[in-house]
Amino acid sequence: MHPLMALLQSVDEQGSISAAARALGLSYRHVWGELKRWETSLGHSLIVWEKGQSARLSEFGTKLMWAERQTQARLAAQIQALRADLERTFAIAFDPQAHVLTCYASHDAALAHLQGQAAGRGLHLDVRFCGSVDAIRALNEGRCLIAGFHVPLQPQAESLSALTFRPLLQPGRHKLIGFADRSQGLMVPRGNPLALDSLRAVARQRARLALRDKGSGTRLLFDEMAQHAGLSANDFALTPHEEPSHQACAAAVAGGLADVALGIASAAASQGLDFVPLQAERYYLVCLKSAVEAPAVVALRQLLQTLAWRQSLEQLPGYQAEQAGQVQSLRAELPWWHLRPKRGHVDDQPPKPRVKP
Q1: What are phi and psi of 339, to 5 degrees?
Q2: Positions of CATH 1.10.10.10 in the chain
């Protein structure tokens, strides 16, 4: 964090210059001097200086702090990918026995959480966050061994999810690996001041809505939920910029750039927001059938089935460790493919009449 942002955040949280200085382990004189120096450099007041009153951020200071938080949230996925690149490089250089597993995946807090636990077991997860569609395409093009995507629980055979993912996944070629169930919903300011409890309410109130980027699983979920509610994107007051992650959506609401966003409970909690659940969904990992027994994939499956991982996952708001690590078939989990007997197959023939003895 930039030193100025650390000062502003501490003053905002502590309510005084002296308390902020103590929290940062600095002298009052140093903190006061730095704030005055930055005010001179920027040409704007950062603190409302009123004698006998608790220190508080000026409007400019508040905007500056939230702009930095929004930038951090938007860059979080890229920073994490860079960190994973460095970990992979050192793993290969210093531990030839370590497993390295590249995973393209829809943005998910639990996957980021998994990286730390995996590293302690000699499994280095190289996670590249992107949209669900791009993740599966990366798998099919050989750019990764595992992909991550999510769909509503019990998706309908002709839903938008089915129409989107069915052409990308093939029974007999792909295998699913259970990861987690999670909740998607509305991320709103504390107290839910606009009383938003559905997409219809968001549209009716003309609440400023922050959305994920096109191609992401959450954007697809929004389109599907809006369709079911008889709404289109034109019915909503959308913010100008699409957001690259749940964290960025939550930061937009926390920073006052949006009134509401669609996302996951853990992102809402991280920004001090309230959460209104709307849709339970299942997050899957998928690999080619030929890769199910690859050493790195086996190591991942074993980790996902440990009690330690299940307990760790369920500490994240909105998550449950359902079927974690279990290999599953597409047809069993997703009702999008229907086998049709081949023409001339014995099952197509009428039953032979029984001959009485």
Answers
A1: -70, 135
A2: 3-57
DSSP letter at 58 equals -
CATH class of 65-333: alpha beta
CB 106, CB 128: distance < 8 Å: no
| CATH class of the domain defined by 3-57 | mainly alpha
Distance of CA 182 to the CA centre of its chain: 10
> What whole-number distance in Å separates Cα of residue 198 and Cα of residue 277?
9
Q: Annotate 113-152 with b (16+ C-beta within 10 A) or e (fewer).
A: bbbebbeeeebbbbbbbbbbbbbbbbbbeeebbbbbbbbb
pLDDT surpassing 90 at residue 253:
yes
**Range(s) of the chain covered by CATH 3.40.190.290:** 65-333
In the chain, beta strands by DSSP E: 47-48, 56-57, 99-106, 123-130, 146-152, 174-188, 208-210, 237-238, 260-264, 274-288, 319-320, 327-328
The pairing of strands 208-210 and 260-264 is parallel
Structure tokens at 253: 């609401």
Query: CA-to-CA distance for 110 and 123, rounded, in angstroms?
Result: 16
At 271-327, the pLDDT tens digits run 999 999 999 999 999 999 999 999 999 999 999 999 999 999 999 999 998 889 999
List the one residue out of 256, 108, 244 whose CA is nearest residue 184: 108
Q: Please report, as a single letter, which amino acid is at residue 332.
A: A
Please, what's the largest Cα pairwise distance for the chain? 110
